[in-house]
Amino acid sequence: MEPVLLYDTTLRDGTQGEHVSFTAGEKIEIALRLDDFGIHYIEGGWPGSNPRDMQFFDLAKRTKFKNARIAAFGSTRKAGITPDKDQNLTALLESSTPAVTIFGKTWDLHVEKVIKTTLKENLAMIYESVEYLKENDREVIYDAEHFFDGYKENRDYALQTLMTALNGGADFLVLCDTNGGTLSSEIESIMEDVSTTLSEKYSSKPDALPIKYGIHTHNDSGLAVANSISAIQSGAVMVQGTINGYGERCGNADLISIIPILCLKMNSPSVSRENLAKLKRLSRFVSQTANLVPVSSRPFVGESAFAHKGGIHVDAVMKESRAYEHMDPDLVGNRRRVLVSDLSGKSNIEYKIKELGIELGENGLDSRKIVSEIKQMEHEGYQFEAADGSLKILMEKFAEQFHPMFDLESFRVIIEKNKDEPCKAQATIEITVGDKTEITAAKGDGPVSALDNALRKALEKFYLTDLDTMRLVDYKVRVIDGREGTAAKVRVLLESRDKDDIWRTIGVSEDIIEASWHALSDSFQYMLSKEKP
To answer: N or C, fewer C-beta in 10 Å, the chain?
Structure first.
């Protein structure tokens, strides 16, 4: 199968999702990552709609891209004016991108009820806009907005809009499931009809080039990826989507899923094997830039995508990985994870021991004893499947191979509350590293924040590691057994990340501050140990 062209719209359609926003500078950084990965088209935004996108295109003019063509996005001309008088089309040309994507109305409902013009005028808007952009030497990608809904209500008119765009000179016809309500079976049958009908009407013309179709789907029915694949199997040569599926409402088609399906399942090498191995890092970079926590269950690149918990599963994976894995996680830059919990068996522990490079035997412990110890700790409130960082430290302690990066001597946290003012927190901490002691104090937004700041301040005296690259991104507290009231044990789970990694740590105590300290301490121990030679 020939490579499918990858069209990324994270920087435009992706930013329409809740909680997703990028500065112009961040958009350039993402565009460079997409370009390095091998994306063919990068849609930078709508230059006629806001100053930030205009700034992006100004920056893009001075940025060298190796692989991708940058595309500016906009709409057909407004009703009742000529293209050269339309500010939107003028802004598209002034963006100086080699490709331009414009959308036009395909659904007669939108033509008559939303933009309130005639069906005939809408066709003129499509034709004249495409023709005008082609006359100005732009590659034109025509997005047929709401195509599948329009087709189902007025097939002839929807097809007429596509023919009009073709006659104007459109290089690609992208069929859009804008509302995300179409089924995969409908995608296939409609695309078959479109291809047959347009080929009969258009391809018979002298010097007519083959019609190139694209697909743009939304995930409102949970089918965006499946619908994109169905369209490709039905002849689409371009697929539009976003990194991590970011987008309005339920999101767009997730290129992070589509790309490995194309490369590994459909024999369509849209990116090289070398670049495919960067997939997880690309996903993480975009989520980090958006300041969003990565979804653990995301296919291919999520932390849970190749995670195994049941002892029987782990035993099988150790013998033959494909028994419970559909592919090698290394191909997309991911890794196999074996979880340890009260459901673990001997196989889980043996896998983790090997993974961590721990040698057992000298201290009388074996994998069965470790399983027993961990199950007892889980009974007391620990949850190691959700705390890989703390599990690593615990296993090293079992094997008497743990070498702490620091030791706590004491800490004190003071909380002050004045009338009509928010609480203030200050922490004082004393730690030792080797034979040296450091005492520091710091303020924070709360007791855990103050402890975090004080510990960072102390550790900076001993380690060259840039602790600013490490951030606490999630903090969860759960009462383990509420029957004891305020004396009940609590479980604190911390999620931390740096530029390359995400890890989780846990603390359990009757005191929430002590539980938080154990989780916080493990997090810093884990990070600093990564830097050891």
So the answer is: C
pTM: 0.76
Place of tokens 């291919």: 300
Average model confidence (pLDDT) across the chain: 89
What is the structure's pLDDT at 366? 65
- The residue written with tokens 């196999």 in the block is 336
Take residue 324 and report the two structure tokens written for it: 């419970």
d(C-alpha 514, C-alpha 503), whole Å? 20
Going by pLDDT thresholds of 50, 70 and 90, the confidence category of residue 354 is: confident
Query: Whose CA is closest to 99, among 164, 9, 24, 4?
Result: 9
Give 101's Cβ-side CA count (13 Å radius).
28
- CA-atom Rg of the chain in angstroms: 28
pLDDT band of residue 485 (cuts 50, 70, 90) is low
Residue 9: per-residue pLDDT = 97
Q: Which distant-in-sequence residues (6+ apart) come within 8 Å of 400 by Cβ?
A: 362, 363
Q: Which CATH class is domain 5-271?
A: alpha beta
Which is nearest to 317 in space by CA: 290, 292, 294, 335?
335
CATH number of 406-462, picked from 3.40.50.11740, 2.60.40.1120, 3.30.160.740, 3.40.50.300: 3.30.160.740
Query: Quick one: how far is CA 169 from the chain centroid?
Result: 35
- What is the average pLDDT across 385-398? 81
pLDDT in tens, 205-243: 667 678 999 999 999 999 999 999 999 999 999 999 999
Domain positions in the chain are: 5-271, 307-398, 406-462
Smallest Cα–Cα separation from 128: which of 142, 111, 148? 142
Residue 464's pLDDT band (cuts 50, 70, 90): confident
How far is Cα 22 from Cα 471, in angstroms, rounded to an integer?
19
Q: How big is the CA angle at 23 (ends 18 and 24), to the nearest 5 degrees?
A: 130
Classify 409 as helix, strand or coil: strand
Q: What single-letter DSSP state applies at residue 252?
A: B
Dig out the tokens for 151 from the structure: 């087709």
Residue 55 in tokens: 């700034």
